[in-house]
Amino acid sequence: MVESILEETEGCISSNHNVLSVLRDKTNDVAARKEEACKKRRKKRTTTSLVSSCFQDLYRLTGEVLGRGAYASVQTCVNLLTDLEYAVKIIEKIPGHSRARVFKEVETFHHCQGHPGIIQML
């Protein structure tokens, strides 16, 4: 256990030309490892994939509005590959809207995934 926490480093301190061994605590490296892991996660999110994640690349809005709410509207769209029509809820990002309320709306849809009344969340 001690070996896994402490690392021996030679030549760090010299006294009267005698080289001493110094034990360095590896727990100080925890912050560095966390930062490195965070950077790796950021890189994973920014990598491109073969599947397009842009809505406009996969669907075309028809302009027909099915309904409106305080934070969003429901419109029809057409899948560009299959020509099938879908309803899509578009949450508007307006500076005056409460950020917490908009995130609550998104979270509600996330929890409803797999429900028979909701087709799919994109």
From TrEMBL:
<keyword id="KW-0067">ATP-binding</keyword>
<keyword id="KW-0723">Serine/threonine-protein kinase</keyword>
<keyword id="KW-0808">Transferase</keyword>
<protein>
    <recommendedName>
        <fullName>Protein kinase domain-containing protein</fullName>
    </recommendedName>
</protein>
<dbReference type="InterPro" id="IPR000719">
    <property type="entry name" value="Prot_kinase_dom"/>
</dbReference>
<dbReference type="InterPro" id="IPR050205">
    <property type="entry name" value="CDPK_Ser/Thr_kinases"/>
</dbReference>
<comment type="similarity">
    <text>Belongs to the protein kinase superfamily. CAMK Ser/Thr protein kinase family.</text>
</comment>
<feature type="domain" description="Protein kinase">
    <location>
        <begin position="60"/>
        <end position="122"/>
    </location>
</feature>
<feature type="binding site">
    <location>
        <position position="89"/>
    </location>
    <ligand>
        <name>ATP</name>
    </ligand>
</feature>
<dbReference type="InterPro" id="IPR017441">
    <property type="entry name" value="Protein_kinase_ATP_BS"/>
</dbReference>
<keyword id="KW-0418">Kinase</keyword>
<dbReference type="GO" id="GO:0004674">
    <property type="term" value="F:protein serine/threonine kinase activity"/>
</dbReference>
<keyword id="KW-0547">Nucleotide-binding</keyword>
<dbReference type="GO" id="GO:0005524">
    <property type="term" value="F:ATP binding"/>
</dbReference>
<dbReference type="InterPro" id="IPR011009">
    <property type="entry name" value="Kinase-like_dom_sf"/>
</dbReference>
